[in-house]
Amino acid sequence: MAQHTQHTQHTVIDSPYDLLTLVATDGVLSGLYMTGQRHRPAEETFGVRDERPFGAVTEQLDAYFRGELTRFDVPLALHGTPFQRSVWDQLRAIPYGETRTYGELAEALGSPGASRAVGLANGKNPIGVIVPCHRVVGANGSLTGYGGGLPRKQRLLDLERGTALF
Asked: Which of 61, 52, 48 is nearest to 20 (CA)?
C-alpha cells in the first residue's frame, strides 16, 4: 500500500497587521502566521511558494480586514492534539466582536480547572485570525498572551468592535 506524503505550499500576503504567511497542506489551509509570531514553525516546513491554493482564503481575509466579513468558512486542516483541537473548536464558536476568558473556555470544555492548559493550546493555534485566539482575554478582561503581540491583539479586537483606527 502506497503511503501518502503531504504536499505543503505557502504564500505571503500583506495585511493591515503586517505580512501574513499562509500555509496549505494538501490544498487545505493549515497555517496562518504573523511576522515575528511566537510558536511560528521554521520556514522550511512551509513548502514551495504557490498562491493557487489560497484564493478563497485571501478573499475572505480581505473582506474581514475591511470589516465586511464576520465568519470565515474556508476549509481548515488543524493539526494538533485532541485537546488542542477541542480548544480551537471552542475559539471558532466565539462570536465576532465578543471575547471569552480562558476560564470560560475551560468550563465550556467541561474542565473548569484547565484554564492554564486552555491558554497553552490557545497559544499553539496554527491558524491565527481565522481561528480567533485573539478573542480570548484574562479573567479580569485584560489582554494577555497573544503570539502575534498584544498591540496586534488589541487592533484585531478594535476591528471587530468597529473601533479600529488605521
From this structure: 61
